[in-house]
Specification:
Strand content: 15-25%
Helix content: 25-40%
Radius of gyration: 19 Å
Number of domains: 2
Largest sheet: 10 strands, mixed
Shape: globular
CATH superfamily of the largest domain: DHBP synthase
Structural class: alpha/beta
Distance between the termini: 43 Å
């Protein structure tokens, strides 16, 4: 049930230029009034986020795209009709009124309509756009529960709307419609689902597509070094007493934390960040993650694990 007094208080704080943490179906977001450069600057300060890394504008309904974007192509309306509200962000040409602090200095802006009922209630009551990256320190594991937000910020935690566990658990799919339609970040809406609506997606070429949230080489990283390993190499983790995330059962000889992950990619994605946080707290010297299947249905999971491991390896991941 939506806590309407809490929604009203959140709106008051947003209108006063303060931050509000709130749930979406993907992860918890750290929100500010997207029309206020001063409020958006508070997001960057609290997260420690580089100023050239854009944030996504969340709105209550698709028609509000026109407030934040210009030259909106028909493909945007097609995708909005099919997938909004839902875990899809569209990169469009920025309207002149959009603060450059929201876009990381670019002439493009990311917009999405979240489906979580608390997010919907907040956006409807606020009436405007809410700029919101994930509610965690920059580059670290995203929060999928209110408790994760409190773990991240401690006494600096802003006003927090409770909303239970996030349904999807991975950040939104990001598709750029500035130029040829291009997948910038896989997520809860698959590449195949997007292509079924608007046709083939172009390959993202660094430097030739807009910068987008969560697409740096190293991201979503726990404090404990994380290694991506093939199933046959997990035996080394048993000897090292590593903290392990694997789809198979825990061997009898293993004395550390072993989380058995779901075999279904959607459920795996839902659990991933909570699992990484638990493994990070285990006190192990390393986290070993069994590499997921090389299958299109696992694309978003593989993307997040690849970036999680990239902070701790100088070799190219599979």
């Amino acid at each position: 049930m939506t806590d309407f007094p809490a929604i009203e208080r959140a709106c008051e704080l947003l209108r006063a230029g303060q931050l509000v943490a709130f749930p979406t179906e993907t992860v918890y977001g750290l929100g500010a009034d997207a029309s206020s450069p001063e409020a958006v600057a508070r997001i960057y300060a609290l997260k420690g986020r580089p100023s050239n890394h854009p944030v996504i504008v969340h709105v209550a309904q698709a028609e509000q795209m026109q407030t934040w974007a210009t030259d909106i192509p028909q493909t945007a309306w097609q995708l909005a009709q099919q997938f909004w509200p839902g875990p899809l962000t569209l990169i469009l040409r920025r309207a002149a009124s959009v603060p450059l602090s929201v876009t990381g200095g670019q002439d493009s802006v990311g917009v999405r309509v979240p489906s979580h009922p608390v997010a919907q209630a907040l956006l409807a009551a606020f009436g405007g756009g809410i700029a919101a990256p994930s509610a965690n320190r920059y580059g670290q594991v995203s929060p999928t529960r209110a408790a994760h937000v409190r773990e991240e910020f401690g006494t600096a935690t802003p006003f927090l709307l409770e909303g239970g566990d996030c349904e999807v658990g991975l950040e939104s799919t990001i598709v750029s419609l500035v130029g040829a339609p291009t997948l910038l970040r896989p997520g809860g809406i698959s590449r195949a689902q997007i292509e079924a609506v608007i046709g083939p997606l172009a390959a993202a070429v660094p430097g030739q597509v807009p910068r987008a949230p969560g697409t740096t080489v190293a991201h979503y990283a726990p404090a404990t070094p994380l290694r991506w390993v093939e199933p046959r190499l997990l035996a080394a983790g048993v000897a090292a007493e590593a903290a392990v995330l694997a789809r198979g059962p825990k061997p009898a000889a293993h004395r550390g934390l072993w989380i058995r992950a779901p075999a279904d990619p959607a459920r795996y994605g839902h659990d991933l960040y909570a699992s990484l946080r638990a493994l990070d707290r285990a006190g192990a010297s390393v986290i070993l993650v069994e590499s997921p299947p090389d299958d299109p249905s696992w694309e978003a999971v593989r993307d997040r694990l690849r970036r999680s491991a990239a902070a701790y390896t100088d070799t190219e991941l599979p």
